Amino acid sequence: MRNLFISAVASLALGTGTAFALGAEGHEGSIVDVAFSFEGPFGTYDEAQLRRGFQVFNEVCASCHGMKYVPIRSLGDEGGPAIPADQLRDYAATLSIIDKESGEERPRIPADMFPTVVGDGMGPDLSVIAKGRAGFHGPYGLGINQLLKGMGGAEYIYSVLVGYEEAPACAPDDAEGYYNVAFTAGGVPDACKDAKGVSTVAGTWIAMPQMITDDVVTYADGTPASAHQVAEDISAFLMWAAEPKLAARKQAGFIAVLMLTLLSVLLYFSNKQLWAPHKGKKTA
Ligand code: HEC
């Protein structure tokens, strides 16, 4: 028994040791776990936060990123940013589109999608990026943290946006891109690799410049726009864009579980009652 205990403690200690080593490689270690309002079985979006996130998207991100799968009208949805219809029409009208039928340029209407943005220096479409990226993979790549903390798509975006750091000393001055500790999909200059070609630094280089700093926007609702606040708001907004019916889905799931529990109780008692006459009888 005592041996078992000791070996359990030892393996635990070893386990955490490796976990730290993983963190040092910058995979999971650099993803910040943010307590978003939409997490957990009953979490919902914070409408005011989504409106702020939309403001950030519009003023900061939209110049390089499209959102072509998101209809503009969905900005008016309850449980989403809930932007009033007249403001929506005015906003849509500021974006132009080539009309499919007439082939001519016209202002957008709320029924149109957000623009598609492509070209040199432009980033990927952000419609579903929050579901296309996972912040948590560990421990040991098993993904157990996803059960505990969620997939971490919004956390990943948050972490990339605030993950810009001064490039490590090994980097040449003309390294392409910007050093980011949360971004692991980018390139690493040869000077920052060891003899085996393995990176010796925590992050990688990303083609997107640092966009979020303190007071990069002035919020319409007066919330102080610290870099962290702004990064949280835009990450929540992109989560909503990717998963607009989250609250309805959770509610339907909750009701389904409730019904199934009730059904289980009923089945248990009817089973008991059905078999009651035959229980305890001698078979021979
Ligand atoms: C100056 C243009 C520009 C602006 C402005 C910009 N981005 Fe980007 N973004 C890029 C480029 C380019 C990439 C591709 C980076 C790469 O793959 O190295 C990118 C990539 C991304 C990615 C994907 C990272 C990944 O894992 O592949 C996310 C998320 C993102 N941007 C979010 C944002 C948000 C949110 C904003 C607004 C706060 C924003 N971007 C503003 C150019 C921009």
Topology:
Blueprint: H1 2-24, H2 47-61, H3 85-93, E1 96-98, E2 105-107, H4 129-132, H5 144-149, H6 153-161, E3 178-180, E4 204-206, H7 227-242, H8 246-275
Antiparallel strand pairs: 1-2, 3-4
Helix pairs in contact: 2-7, 6-7
Residues 56, 60-61, 63-65, 121, 123-124, 129, 133, 157, 160-161, 185-186, 206-209, 211-212, 234 line the site of heme C.
Q: Any overview of this molecule?
A:
The strands form 2 sheets. Strands 1-2 form a two-stranded antiparallel ribbon. Helix 2 packs across helix 7 (227-242) and helix 6 runs antiparallel to helix 7 (227-242). The protein contains 8 helices and 4 strands; from the N terminus they run αααββαααββαα. The protein has 284 residues and is mostly helical. A hairpin with a 6-residue loop joins strand 1 and strand 2 (105-107). Helices cover 39% and strands 4% of the residues.
Contiguous uncertain segments of 5+ residues: 4-27
Going across the biggest sheet, name each strand in turn: 1-2
Give the helix level as a range of percent. 25-40%
N-to-C span: 47 Å
The total count of strands amounts to: 4
Structural category is mainly alpha
Order of H and E elements: HHHEEHHHEEHH
The tally of helices reads: 8
Q: What portion of the residues fall into strands of 2 or more residues?
A: under 5%
Multimeric status of the protein:
single chain
Could you name the CATH homologous superfamily of the largest domain? Cytochrome c-like domain
Bound molecules: heme C
Summarize the structure.
The protein has eight helices and four strands.
Please describe the structure with a list of short key phrases separated by commas or semicolons.
Cytochrome Bc1 Complex, Chain D, domain 2, 4 strands, two-stranded antiparallel sheet, 2 domains, two-stranded antiparallel ribbon, mainly alpha, single chain, binds heme C, 284 residues
